[in-house]
Design goal:
By secondary structure, the chain is mostly beta strands. It contains 2 helices and 42 strands. The strands form 3 sheets. The chain has a 38-stranded parallel sheet that branches. It is elongated.
Length: 531
């Protein structure tokens, strides 16, 4: 029996195929659109869209040529199709983009309310073809949000298809889908590096979304899920994509008011930008995968697998914070959200920077149930020993980003305020000797570390540091290089730590117990130490 959800997806795909096959085609040239790239033809293009909608829907076809336009308003059952060699070029005059205030309230009301292609409360709409949409964003290079339109903005639309097209040079975010249902993005190419806030795509409070077989290359966040209103971003699947960004390649947040639920990222490649200079931020990609909830909301049930990351500064960053920004000016301040049930597996990261990865909650609101499995992480190394004793501030209200704590006491993974952390078959290495811990767990409960394979530098502190950790088990570890101490245990709250069944070579001391650690807090058995 086919599950109901699969039947619904099949029905949608069939309906769109029937629409494409039977709907009439309306050529924009028939309504006087000029394709010289100089003549503003907004009125003629809109006339074709309206004529198509009045006929019950169909395809609005752009033959080869360059069509200069301001805002175009999509209508129900209308598909824009750009032929190969066709370019829809955004006007450089802000007056050609009228302000549109959506009925649904969101924090993006504080941003831009203009777009080259706009639609609200529509059904069965989209864009496709082998052509290009160019936002002409180089003419809008100022930091203020006002008068920098999105290229695509669809609000509360259903059954949306964007397929095959190339999107370039937005004045703002390239695409914003707000509170939409059943969105399919497939086979598109995005290059967005000409102005500020140049995200590749923003899926905001949407349900039932698939993104596949696409390339996103952007100055700001690449593929970004948001929740800027009291509606969760949920049931989102991303697969077979290449992501590149000077900021974060794949990100949930920062706005998190409605939360994130049931998100998968699979079979994707993340790389540092190769063909652009940073407009602001870092030339090197700042982050690979960033999962953040700081404005309330629940982030849960996220599965990431089969991902390669090359050259970005911080491969993994998970953050539960408390910026607590309401999504409307008169709205209540949100409470602290939650971040739980995240699985990251089969991931390879090379050429990472010196900061280190982190998973951090707050003392009274902890990250829950995170599993890292079958990871290979390569870091720049070169961290100095003084970083081991460096205090890491809580910064609950700070804007979340992977550099927010500076270089961490661990070259590999720093975890704080976490309940339920499983680290299985994780390999870490450094290109240059690093005198920090490989992993630090601070105020973490229910920890399982199995099959850890890490490099230790001569003269460095303990490979693993557990501070105020309870119910931890470490087994089947391999150490490459010489280590004075394998595990440093400190903190009066430390309880029930087991070190068992590990294989060590060139380790002088297995456990260094801090002065405040209870005498029965650590149990060690069946560990082999070979010189």
């Amino acid at each position: 029996m086919i599950p109901f959800r699969d039947l619904r997806v099949l029905f949608l795909a069939t309906a769109l195929a029937v629409h494409a096959a039977t709907g009439r085609t309306f050529n924009v040239r028939e309504d006087g659109a000029t394709s010289d790239g100089r003549t503003l033809c907004t009125t003629a293009l809109q006339r074709t869209i309206d004529r198509c909608a009045a006929a019950g829907g169909g395809t609005v076809f752009f033959p080869a040529g360059v069509y200069l336009s301001g805002t175009l308003e999509l209508k129900n059952n209308v598909m824009l199709e750009l032929d190969g060699g066709a370019t829809l070029l955004g006007s450089t005059n802000p007056k050609d983009y009228p302000v549109r205030q959506p009925v649904v309230a969101s924090y993006t009301d504080n941003y831009v309310r203009q777009a080259l292609i706009a639609g609200e409360n529509l059904r069965n709409v989209g864009l496709r073809g082998r052509g290009t949409i160019d936002g002409n964003g180089g003419a809008f290079r100022w930091k203020e949000y006002r008068d920098r339109p999105y290229v695509i903005r669809l609000v509360q639309c259903q059954d949306v298809l964007v397929e095959g097209i190339t999107l370039r040079a937005s004045p703002m975010w390239m695409q914003h889908y707000l509170a939409c249902d059943r969105v399919r993005i497939r086979g598109i190419t995005v290059f967005n590096h000409v102005s500020y806030n140049n995200d590749g795509i923003d899926i905001d409070g949407c349900h039932d979304v698939t993104i596949s077989d696409s390339v996103f290359d952007s100055d700001d966040d690449g593929l970004c899920l948001k929740s800027t209103l009291n509606r969760a971003c949920e049931n989102v699947t991303i697969t077979n994509c290449v992501l590149s960004s000077h900021c974060n390649a794949f990100k949930l947040g920062t706005e998190s008011n409605g939360g994130f639920r049931n998100i998968t990222l699979n079979n994707c490649v993340i790389i540092s930008p190769r063909f652009s200079q940073s407009v602001y931020g870092m030339q090197r990609g700042m982050g690979g995968i960033a999962l953040e909830t700081v404005d309330g909301g629940t982030l849960e049930n996220v599965a990431i697998s089969n991902v390669t990351i090359a050259g970005v500064n911080v491969p993994l960053f998970l953050r539960l914070g408390n910026r607590a920004r309401p999504f409307t000016a008169d709205g209540p301040k949100p409470g602290i959200g939650s971040l739980r049930s995240v699985t990251i597996s089969n991931l390879v990261a090379t050429g990472a920077g010196r900061v280190g990865c982190s998973i951090t909650g707050l003392p009274d609101h902890r990250v829950e149930n995170v599993t890292l499995s079958n990871l290979s992480l390569e870091f720049e190394g070169g961290g100095k020993r003084e970083l081991v004793e460096k205090p890491v501030p809580e910064r609950p209200e700070a804007y979340p980003e992977s550099r927010m704590f500076g270089e961490l006491p661990a070259y590999g993974l720093y975890c704080r305020h976490v309940d339920g952390l499983k680290i299985s078959d994780v390999r870490m290495t450094v290109r240059a000797a690093d005198q920090r811990h490989a992993i630090v767990c601070d105020d973490v409960a229910d920890v399982g570390i199995v099959g850890l394979n890490v490099v230790a530098a001569g003269g460095a502190p303990a490979v693993l540091r557990l501070t105020n950790v309870t119910d931890a088990a470490v087994r089947d570890t391999r150490i490459r290089g010489a280590a004075g101490v394998f595990m440093k245990v400190d903190g009066e709250a430390t309880r029930r730590v087991i070190l068992a069944g590990n294989h060590f070579s060139r380790v002088d001391q297995l456990i260094d117990r801090g002065a405040g650690v209870p005498a029965d807090a650590v149990f060690e058995t069946n560990n082999a130490v070979l010189k």
